[in-house]
Amino acid sequence: MSESESRLFLVDELPGFTPQIGRLVSMMRYVRHTTLADAAGLGVEQLDYLHDPTSNSIGALLLHIAAVEVAYQAITFHRRDLTEEEENEWNGALDLGDKARRGIRGHDLNYYVKRLEGVRADTLAEFARRNDDWLAEQTPFWGGRRANNHFKWFHVLEDELNHRGQIRWLKTRALRDSA
Amino acid sequence: MSESESRLFLVDELPGFTPQIGRLVSMMRYVRHTTLADAAGLGVEQLDYLHDPTSNSIGALLLHIAAVEVAYQAITFHRRDLTEEEENEWNGALDLGDKARRGIRGHDLNYYVKRLEGVRADTLAEFARRNDDWLAEQTPFWGGRRANNHFKWFHVLEDELNHRGQIRWLKTRALRDSA
């Protein structure tokens, strides 16, 4: 078992990160582990499965998870929102809905895993350069209420979990309907 | 705006708790705020809505969220699992599935909110008596791998978020089908 696997059920400090960032990364790693475990083995048919006309596909949800992380890299590391060009690059994954339903199709699981991994590597590299004072920094956020970077990154993982719950539900139906 | 509302987007220390427990409680409060916001306004018909024969109702998911919290109170505060009698009290909410589909029906939203609030009050009272050393305590857990109390309580909130994602998805269909 790798060191990272043996630490999967620990929320704790991590080598290479300041104490609070380490605990946050522990949580993000566990969450990602479960997301990828749920997606493991799915084929293009299941990844593209649309349960009904307003449902998102599992593939679109996976790309959404990566796109949200990119958006919060911009917000917290560079203090800006995604540009329209960047949003277009993600093919509607940030907002989901019709554009994502039309545009995000035909990819195998490896495509989504690579996108997720590429984004995550950037996040961890930026975290490694920062410290707990940065994590506690506050700015006005939703509705003008103050939010710190710790909350903003917690939101990234809580949005992933929200969609992981949907992926689990959709996966059962996608596998059943394609059986 | 109350002090608690003004802190909704902060993951930070909290009065009455040690530093790491405070950050954990910050996250749990935000998660619960979103769960209740998603359930707000739902009637019995929507709470009992079954999308298909293997789907859980929103009511059962809400009771499941409370039951998981009770189970982790037993595991982390009292170092034991729920007894069969306690599991029965929760009417299948811990395991969901058929028993929950049959047994958890006909309650209004207030019933679920009160159950959730009662359980949460116990959790916060127990947290207030403990400290960060307790939160870091490890025991063998899933598959014998070591897990600390911090992870176990993170799991409680991550399971809630997983089901909140399903509640959001089901709610859209429940409201549409009952319109």
Q: Could you say which overall geometry of chain A the principal axes of the C-alpha atoms support?
A: globular
Largest interface: A-B, 38 and 38 residues
Helix content of chain A: 55-70%
Q: What characterizes the major β-sheet of chain A?
A: 2 strands, antiparallel
Overall residue-averaged pLDDT value of chain A? 95
Query: Beta-strand level of the residues of chain A, as a percent range?
Result: under 5%
Topology of chain A as a string of helices (H) and strands (E): HHHHHHHHEEH
Any overview of this molecule?
The structure is a homodimer of 179-residue chains. Helices cover 64% and strands 3% of the residues of chain A. Chain A is mainly α. A two-stranded antiparallel ribbon of chain A has the order 1-2. In chain A, helix 2 (19-39) runs parallel beside helix 9 (149-177) and helix 4 packs antiparallel against helix 9 (149-177). The radius of gyration of chain A is 17 Å and the shape is globular. The mean pLDDT of chain A is 95. The A-B interface holds A 6, 8-12, 20, 23, 26-27, 30-31, 34, 52, 54-55, 136, 138, 141-142, 145-148, 150-151, 154, 158, 161-166, 168-169, 172-173 and B 6, 8-12, 20, 23, 26-27, 30-31, 34, 52, 54-55, 136, 138, 141-142, 145-148, 150-151, 154, 158, 161-166, 168-169, 172-173.
